[in-house]
């Protein structure tokens, strides 16, 4: 009798932790494990805002999958997923197909522009290593061209960020760290640079308590960021954006050389297109993280939605919850293969930290509020803890943010 075939699609936080833990939990005689991913690397999604601003090199955010997984236990396939054929237990790839007995869906997110006119064509979004690199290169090009291009305009030095959630505010924090260096490098008066954030909500960082959110806003404003709260981007153009304040009659044009949209993401379209039961594009998983309409399919990360109880709001799709989902899915797959009952998912909320550049931050960790440098240090500890769990001390020392060497 052949071994059960476990197929993991997507090498995000949930997919990678599932894969690494399965290789530890199961022996070669227990199951055949295959991981499929579009790229040959895994990357830290929560570091992309730094790469986009240029405060770290984009290579720092990623690591080759073959250097993280146990290649003696896991077969890696670099390919793009086209569709899941759940009736026949197959995944259709761009260059072939793979059969499975158990499937783990961890396909991640896509940018959500909410139908705003021109946003897809004229704004950047931070959604991958390549898009982050493109943003950094674009910003540097605008600064490099300012004193050399006869057609350069002052508005080329204006940066508009759409959204003041976690991604938007962390990106703003990196920008205020990066801009002074760019101005020195390209002989630009820093007073000519404008950083404008447009947010539809009346406050920044809605998930955080008001005092922490206000601390973040005050810090960024002290560094020159202009917030337009209760204001919506209505259209993006080659020259900038049109915005409108709530209840205002007219739109305002903001001319800008760079527009970066951080205002929302949505789950990969593939589960819904493949016929799975979804809730706003996400698979509403059962208490052991399986698809409600297919006991052989698990979902983790951005494609999964977990409700703490009936009638309650779902848990936010963070890296923290994706890692915990990956840990449980690995254990539950082992239970199924061994003929044991599965475990229920219990989310252990350890807290949330937002960086405001390299030396500032806010957060709540185990119910303790942090501001300033302690929060920034804790963010680095959290990042390095993930690397330690994923690939051990060696990976943490190579890629981590705390200088142990």
Automatic annotation (TrEMBL):
<dbReference type="InterPro" id="IPR051169">
    <property type="entry name" value="NADH-Q_oxidoreductase"/>
</dbReference>
<keyword id="KW-0274">FAD</keyword>
<protein>
    <submittedName>
        <fullName>NAD(P)/FAD-dependent oxidoreductase</fullName>
        <ecNumber>1.6.5.-</ecNumber>
    </submittedName>
</protein>
<dbReference type="Pfam" id="PF07992">
    <property type="entry name" value="Pyr_redox_2"/>
</dbReference>
<dbReference type="GO" id="GO:0019646">
    <property type="term" value="P:aerobic electron transport chain"/>
</dbReference>
<dbReference type="InterPro" id="IPR036188">
    <property type="entry name" value="FAD/NAD-bd_sf"/>
</dbReference>
<keyword id="KW-0285">Flavoprotein</keyword>
<feature type="domain" description="FAD/NAD(P)-binding">
    <location>
        <begin position="5"/>
        <end position="326"/>
    </location>
</feature>
<dbReference type="GO" id="GO:0003955">
    <property type="term" value="F:NAD(P)H dehydrogenase (quinone) activity"/>
</dbReference>
<keyword id="KW-0560">Oxidoreductase</keyword>
<dbReference type="InterPro" id="IPR023753">
    <property type="entry name" value="FAD/NAD-binding_dom"/>
</dbReference>
<comment type="similarity">
    <text>Belongs to the NADH dehydrogenase family.</text>
</comment>
